[in-house]
Specification:
The structure is a single chain. α4 links the parallel β5 and β6. The protein has a single domain, classed as Aminopeptidase. By secondary structure, it is an alpha/beta fold. It is built from 6 helices and 7 strands, in the order ββααβαββαβαβα.
């Protein structure tokens, strides 16, 4: 299976979904625990949730493979993006709730990890970089929205219940001045925070370059806003119906604020 799916749009907006993939090659699946095979840390149903992107003319890049194969939002050198805080690595060995992914003795070695980077991580990032360059060539600037979701409660990463909408701009470095703050002004009926626990991962921090006309924002959603948080992780249509107008307002405002920003 190819490492990603891509749909070309007609506007300066590219939406990346690096953690919504659920494919795990069968030989690898057999090495994993029963809990891991449920893929609990997937960013579930984001394509379905963001079903309005085609109407907005966005290009969409979606990972096909599970983050358990390789995490596309981590640096290839496995550096910790949040120094001093716990996080999962480039190739995870446990779940967000610290449950082992692999049966005893079945963990990947360094050679296998390197192969996953070559076969899965690098193609996704090559496509992401290529499309941003092409968008910038066509429009003079590019807008990258990195879409994520996570359990509403993960004591490993944050205390208590997660704020519903978590916007990240790498403390303002990944996009033009005022964009993050402008998005916060569009929040209605939900709790929201800008550059809280989730400031943006590798994708936002690497590709957001406002001085060169590329503006990137990450949105980390609490999964409680649109789905059931226990297996089989069902989509909740009524919750999603309420959430979609908020997501669309974010995207439309991002496009409006980013319009014509060839530099920061």
């Amino acid at each position: 299976m190819a490492p990603f799916k891509f749909s070309a749009g007609r506007t300066p907006l590219l939406v990346s979904m690096p953690h919504t993939g659920t494919h795990v090659p069968e030989p690898l699946l057999r090495r994993m625990t029963a809990e891991a095979r449920l893929l609990p840390d997937t960013d579930w149903h984001l394509e379905r949730l963001y079903d309005f992107l085609d109407e907005l003319g966005a290009s969409v890049l979606v990972a096909t493979h599970s983050r358990y194969v390789v995490d596309l939002n981590r640096p290839p050198d496995n550096a910790n993006l949040y120094p001093g805080q716990d996080t999962t690595p480039l190739v995870p060995l446990d779940t967000f709730h610290k449950r082992p992914l692999y049966l005893p003795g079945q963990e990947p070695d360094a050679g296998e990890i390197a192969e996953r980077v070559v076969s899965r991580w690098k193609p996704y990032h090559a496509k992401l970089a290529q499309e941003l360059n092409q968008i910038k060539s066509r429009h003079g600037y590019a807008l990258l929205w990195d879409a994520h979701s996570i359990f509403s409660e993960v004591p490993r990463f944050f205390s208590g219940k997660l704020t519903e909408l978590n916007l990240g701009t790498a403390d303002g470095r990944s996009c033009g001045s005022g964009i993050g703050e402008g998005l916060m002004q569009k929040v209605s009926g939900y709790g929201a925070v800008l550059n809280g626990r989730f400031k943006g991962g590798y994708i936002t921090r690497t590709y957001g370059d406002p001085a060169k006309g590329v503006h990137a924002v990450q949105l980390e959603l609490s999964e409680a806003t649109y789905m059931e948080e226990s297996p089989p992780f069902r989509f909740n249509d009524s919750l999603a119906k309420r959430l979609r107008p908020q997501l669309r307002a974010f995207i439309e405002e991002f496009c409006r604020l980013g319009h014509g920003r060839r530099t920061g």
